[in-house]
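Build the 3D complex.
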Amino acid sequence: MLLKRAALLALLLALVFCAVELLPGDAANATSERGESAADIDRRRALLGLDRPVLERFWDWMSGLPTGDLGTSARGEPVTDLLSTAFPNTLLLGGIALLLTATLSLTLGCWAALRPGGRTDRAVSGTATAVLALPEFVVAVALVLVLSLWTGWLPAVTLTDVDGTPDSWTMLVLPALALTIPQTGWNVRIVRAALADEARAPHVETAVLDGLPPHRVLTHHVLPGALPTIAAGLATSTGMLLGGAVVVETIFNYPGIGSVLASAVTDRDSPVIAGVTALAGAVITVVLLLADLVRDLMAGGRR
Amino acid sequence: MDLTRRQLLCTGGALTATALLGGCGDGSDDDTAGSPGAGTKPRRGGTLRVGALGRAGAITRDPHGTQANESDYLILSLVYDTLTVPGTKPNTVPRLAAAWQPSDDLKTWRFTLAKGAAFHDGTPVTAADVVFSLRRLRATPSGASRLPGIQAKNITADGDGTVVLVSDYPNAELPQLTRLTTFVIPEGTTDKDIAKAPGTGPFTLDWFRGGNARLVRNDTWYGGDVHLDAIEVKIFESPQAMANALLSGQIDLASNVGAVAARTAANRGDIRTVRRPNDMAMPLVMRTADGPFADPRVREALRLAVDREAMVKQVLSGYGSVANDILGTGDPAYAKDIPQRTRDLARAKRLLKEAGFDTSRTYELLTTEDISGLAESATLFASQVREAGVRIKVVKQESAVFWDKTWLKGDLYTTYWGTNDSVVFFASKTMVSDSGQNEAGWQDEEFDTAYEKAMATADATARARQLRELQQIQHERSGYLLWGMADGIDLAAPAVQGLPKLPGYGRVQLERAWLAR
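Done.
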């Protein structure tokens, strides 16, 4: 399982290298200054090794991976330096958002499941559908407008301190909410559906017929069976959270991986893009493995 | 919507008026009337929080590197000094070089270093440091265009206090070349240590992290009083986020934030809009060497077909001024007496007919979305010239493709320049026949002669006459259609005083800023 996922990640990285290659222009060109002659640009192209075949460059980059060497950016900065504060910041933001998403969607999903078909259930499901259709940037802009510019309750953007982390925890609130809200919409639907599926299982019916209180049925009989699906849903969210972070970070000026990635794409900077992909891929892989683990454990418990 | 627009125009008008009035003063400290502290003596102390645009992936710490980020450029120019800096009039004023003197043939220029100039570690600045720095700058990939006509071997020291630059050709405006990125670092600084190199500037670097920095006052700066205790530079990827930070009080100054943000802040009484006129030129380039626009009558027709007022109003939201097809509008030598070209569709049509211009064809106008307003200018232009019978289709190209395939080569495309404000800069860089960035492929013997003559004329009045002739030719038949100039726009909290008013790189001159609180 682990091997398969690792191979998939390597393949993904190769694709990223090739995709950058397919974009018009290259790093030497994209990072040039107006007024540089063609010869100057060629000189830098050679310096960056861009005159070599893409597969060779990819292999070079990959062979540095085991030692933690992610290569050098087109502007000469070590990629690990570029990512060393940005990536933990994104992980922090994504982690908070994931935790919030999990808590909110479980609470709301269970709340709705306890009143199947009732007004609450319909309201929760309906709102969830509407919310999940909202793109992150709409949510983000609305949040800034209402919670910061109008009311002045929270800071509008994230400013960083000498150590590269957000100045104060209040600056995390809005970006985390902007990521959480759409993802909660998505996960509430999954939790609710998984619970409904599980509620039709024979052992749950037995429990209900035994006259157990609804809460007990939910926590002891329905939820355990639904957990693997819920975990898988949250795991999928991790990818979407990291993707959404790129947009949300720009709006809130959050010092994360998003801005690094965006400018790396503009610069055709394959080592940086691949570095971001590798780290994000590794995180998603770990989360997916955790979800698999949950499934195996649950299945084991059932056996 | 209507109301906001009208309000906006009013605010705009009022601001222009005050800016103009302010400009009539001695230019030292002219802030918008009504803001607290205006007209009073600068107060010492305080920390100014400045937002500046930049991309986290494009950070550079090298004062001679490619500064794609405004944030980096701002930090570097507060820590390091250039030989000269932009001024109002004349447009080149002393900094690390206290004075300069040309030889009679205007080829050899001697720069005397300012008294008391020292690096932040206390070591005095010597000519050797300057020579080392200029040669290092010359050795960068774009060094040849940063110090045109000055070879590395012709940058030498004469004793400790004088630097001698020898140009390949007579150049009356050479000191102007030293305004931009001639940052001075100690002799012998290696590339490895570049981020730690001490500067000589008004501020010393306290810390730098990911494009953000804190700078503290250099109490022993040779250049005069610095009022602020510290400046904190915050990097922003988007102008909108920067404007939000200002609106919510997280920063005091949003540097070069642009017209869109200014519009957002227009109805906020507590935010001041600082307009720096003649900041950005975004002309259309018509290829003169060959192609459909090679006939000067066709180019003249297009220049007559454009509605300049409408362009400024719509493309720049009114934050700009109408221009007259001459580049270098901020220059004291700019020829204000050449009559302003205005829209004349009848004459445009007549000229097109005379030139035998094929009006049944559709022509492509290539553009990018590199800066805001650029693609919009192309679209509006296309719809305006349709009234003169010219059919134009706007093609937006991705930035890298545009600079690679279209720039310097295309028949009709948009370009932009925000780096300099002088007539000579544009003439030497983009218009004389052998210039490296001749955007329109223009070759005009008369223009070249006028340029050479101006460059070889030491007397200022005589040179101004030559420069006027240069501009007259450009106005008549160059490959440029310059419809307007965009203002540089900063947004500031009311307490911020003494902000720079100059266009282009003038915006980074924050050493005289102070806080009225």
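Chain B touches chain A at residues 55-60, 65-66, 68, 141-142, 144-146, 207, 209-210, 212, 214, 234, 236-238, 240-242, 244-245, 247-248, 250-251, 398-401, 403-404, 429, 436-437 (CB under 8 Å).
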